[in-house]
Write a structure and sequence with these properties.
Largest sheet: 5 strands, antiparallel
Order of helices and strands: HHEEEEEEEEEE
Distance between the termini: 71 Å
Helix content: 10-25%
Number of strands: 10
Radius of gyration: 31 Å
């Protein structure tokens, strides 16, 4: 009687079958399904940039908001890294440069440090130039939006009445991610 016919691939049949299965698994991993793609996309950060500004301003006696922006929280994002930069210029129209003003940034109600104005002392009317910055991380999992404000406060409000040249501007960059 003759030997039975060898299996396809000879003695290598089970090994070739295993290699075929591994090759299919590797191919599946290298070309993600819709669910895997959706998870990868969900993890991508969402960048947002907003500007708020006001012109012709005058300063009141206490901290007041002169520019603000709102960053809506995208669905599925739980964390925000935010950088805010506020710039203002206000003319000291009465004191001849003897008074000053200050600026600060509020991110979701939390105030930065106070930034004093720099003075343009060579001008007929002394211009107070303020630059304030703030950066932080905010848990946005329970929020619909994050508000960022640029506030100014004068030492002597009478020195800073409204003027066409006065302005305040706020630039905000936010990056929403998942934790």
């Amino acid at each position: 009687m003759a030997d039975p016919a060898p299996s396809a691939g000879g003695d290598l049949g089970p090994l070739l079958e295993k290699i075929g299965k591994l090759d299919k698994r590797l191919s599946d991993l290298e070309s993600p399904s819709g669910t895997q793609r959706a998870q990868a996309v969900r993890r991508l950060p969402f960048q947002d940039f907003r500007i708020g500004q006001a012109g012709g301003i005058g300063l009141s006696g206490s901290w007041a908001t002169y520019a603000s922006v709102s960053l809506p929280v995208p669905a599925g994002k739980t964390r925000l890294q935010v950088l805010a930069i506020g710039t203002a210029a206000v003319l000291d129209q009465t004191s001849g440069g003897l008074t000053t003003s200050y600026g600060r940034i509020l991110i979701n109600g939390s105030a930065s440090r106070e930034f004093p104005a720099a003075k343009d002392a060579g001008a007929t009317l002394v211009n107070n130039v303020i630059t304030a910055t703030s950066a932080t991380e905010v848990d946005v999992s329970a929020l619909g939006a994050v508000t960022v404000e640029f506030q100014l406060q004068p030492l002597n409000p009478a020195a800073f009445p409204p003027h066409a040249q006065n302005f305040a501007q706020l630039a905000v960059i936010g990056s929403f991610t998942i934790a």
